[in-house]
């Protein structure tokens, strides 16, 4: 028995494959049944798409019209391209102006944006002869390319030109391509720079002036508040002290970072990072959008926008992944003992007598690599600071005043690992080591490059070949966690005030109770007046007797 074909009874086209409807059958079907089947099939073809709004009937008709008009050779081989051309013509912009509007393609916009990178001034010839802080991005990209890490050559060269533009516009002493952090809308290309000493001093002076102005305005507000009358009682709650950020050129703010979304766009300087931002960044996990002014909606609330969150993540990644071969850096011989006692040594210099190790030795043992960036403590600083430590003036004032309550003991001092600590002392993540070392190739070991990959910060890499090494980061800016990220829960709801006779609302009295209360009150007033009259009469009698 023959079936009814691929169509179901409720679908259009049902009945075309019945015995009386096959085009190969000699029997001619009834005209009414055939017309009904044709109408059902046409209705199906006329259904409009929910996404594009087109229907298959008109699309096929336009395709056949285009084929008959142009009559291309081997039309069956290019039927897909014809279909695309017909669809594309449906979405073309209809020009209603006297002149056709020039359509700017995305490739033209990118080329116009990067056009400024290829402009060369005659004044730059003299500067190129001397030393320049511009890093050789293409050389670094070549070494990372041996292990399949990095960007395309075109993008690397565009970043190279963008860094050149940054170095020529800013008074920079050192510059390095830090890496690229991915975003949902746009990405961030990051440059790590160090200003000249004069520029750093000017920045600190400007920040001090801004801080002093804020204090003066605060003092004026306090004076105005004191003049107000009928003040509510002052709260005895003392908020925790605000931990100040580290100064420019030290700790987490040792370097200054510039970012841009694409090579050719203007570089934007990120603000310094504060301990509060680093502490909060450890508790949240957010994807970057690519817009520096975007708000960071999270719990606990982040103190700043995306520019501050980006700066905090850069500080965390740098503190955990900036490494170098052992012996390349050494501590300065002349260093103050006070600095060693406060937070350990934080200055180092390049070792002129450095003897590079072989690639096999650097791959076999993690003790041949060291951290050359200070680690960040739980406090959010690289050097611990006692928040309850007071100045000499405050201590003298407190000695004069009477101290009724005992102050709590100060917090325990945090001590992190010192600089140039070997990677072999890094803690793993459960059963995963903190680092994975490998050679770029096993086929030609004499020309291999040692590559290190961070498992704690996926996307952080380092290479070493002879006296050359570098660090780079390509990723989303998230730290690896074996478990899924669980946001911090909000604090528990506070308990209600305990009910008692003082806080319990009394029931309304009845009319009889109100009348009885008024009568008792009037009686009490009458009794008081009677007592007063008696006292007055007694006093008058005593005066008459005298």
UniProtKB/TrEMBL annotation:
GO terms for biological process: axoneme assembly; cilium movement involved in cell motility. It comes from the Eukaryota. One of its GO terms (cellular component) is radial spoke. Keywords: Cell projection, Cilium, Cytoplasm, Cytoskeleton. It is found in: Cytoplasm, Cytoskeleton, Cilium axoneme. Residues 1-22, 197-248, 333-352, 390-424, 485-546 are annotated as: Disordered. Residues 197-210, 219-228, 392-409, 528-546 have a biased composition (Acidic residues). InterPro entries: Radial_spoke. Pfam families: Radial_spoke. The keyword Nucleus does not apply. This is RSH4A protein.
């Amino acid at each position: 028995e023959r079936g009814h074909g691929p169509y179901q009874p409720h679908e259009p086209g049902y009945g075309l494959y019945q015995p009386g409807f096959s085009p190969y059958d000699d029997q001619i079907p009834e005209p009414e049944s055939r017309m009904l089947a044709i109408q059902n099939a046409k209705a199906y073809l006329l259904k409009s798409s929910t996404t594009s709004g087109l229907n298959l009937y008109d699309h096929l008709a336009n395709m056949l019209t285009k084929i008959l008009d142009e009559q291309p050779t081997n039309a069956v081989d290019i039927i897909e391209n014809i279909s695309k051309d017909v669809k594309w013509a449906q979405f073309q912009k209809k020009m209603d102006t006297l002149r056709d509007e020039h359509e700017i393609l995305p490739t033209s916009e990118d080329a116009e944006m990067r056009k400024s990178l290829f402009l060369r001034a005659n004044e730059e010839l003299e500067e190129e002869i001397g030393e320049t802080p511009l890093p050789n991005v293409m050389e670094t990209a070549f070494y990372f390319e041996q292990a399949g890490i990095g960007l395309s050559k075109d993008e690397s060269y565009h970043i190279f030109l963008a860094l050149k533009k940054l170095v020529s516009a800013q008074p920079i002493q050192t510059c390095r391509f830090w890496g690229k952090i991915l975003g949902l809308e746009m990405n961030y290309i990051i440059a790590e720079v160090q200003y000249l000493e004069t520029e750093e001093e000017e920045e600190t002076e400007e920040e001090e002036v801004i801080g002093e102005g804020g204090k003066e305005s605060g003092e004026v507000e306090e004076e105005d508040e004191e003049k107000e009358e009928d003040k509510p009682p002052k709260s005895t709650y003392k908020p925790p002290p605000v931990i100040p950020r580290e100064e420019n050129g030290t700790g987490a703010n040792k370097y200054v970072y510039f970012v841009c979304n694409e090579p050719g766009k203007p570089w934007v300087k990120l603000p310094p990072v504060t301990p509060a931002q680093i502490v909060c960044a450890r508790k949240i996990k957010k994807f970057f959008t690519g817009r520096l002014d975007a708000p960071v909606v999270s719990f606990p609330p982040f103190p700043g926008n995306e520019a501050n969150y980006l700066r905090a993540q850069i500080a965390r990644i740098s503190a955990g992944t900036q490494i170098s071969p052992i012996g390349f850096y050494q501590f300065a011989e002349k260093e103050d003992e006070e600095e060693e006692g406060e937070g350990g040594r934080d200055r180092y210099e390049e070792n002129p007598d450095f003897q590079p190790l072989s690639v096999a030795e650097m791959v076999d043992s993690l003790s041949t690599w060291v951290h050359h960036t200070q680690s960040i403590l739980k406090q959010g600083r690289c050097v611990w600071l006692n928040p309850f430590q007071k100045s000499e003036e405050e201590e003298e004032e407190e000695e004069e005043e009477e101290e009724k309550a005992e102050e709590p003991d100060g917090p325990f001092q945090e001590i992190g690992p010192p600089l140039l600590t070997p990677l072999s002392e890094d803690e793993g993540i459960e059963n995963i080591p903190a680092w994975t070392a490998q050679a770029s190739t096993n086929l030609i070991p004499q020309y291999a490059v040692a590559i290190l990959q961070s498992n704690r910060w996926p996307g952080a890499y380092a290479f070493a070949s002879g006296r050359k090494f570098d660090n780079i980061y390509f990723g989303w800016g998230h730290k690896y966690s074996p478990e899924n990220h669980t946001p911090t829960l909000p604090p528990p709801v506070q308990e209600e005030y305990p009910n008692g006779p003082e806080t319990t609302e009394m029931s309304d009295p009845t009319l009889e109770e109100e009348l009885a209360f008024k009568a008792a009150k009037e009686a009490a007033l009458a009794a008081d007046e009677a007592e007063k009259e008696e006292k007055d009469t007694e006093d008058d009698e005593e005066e008459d007797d005298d």
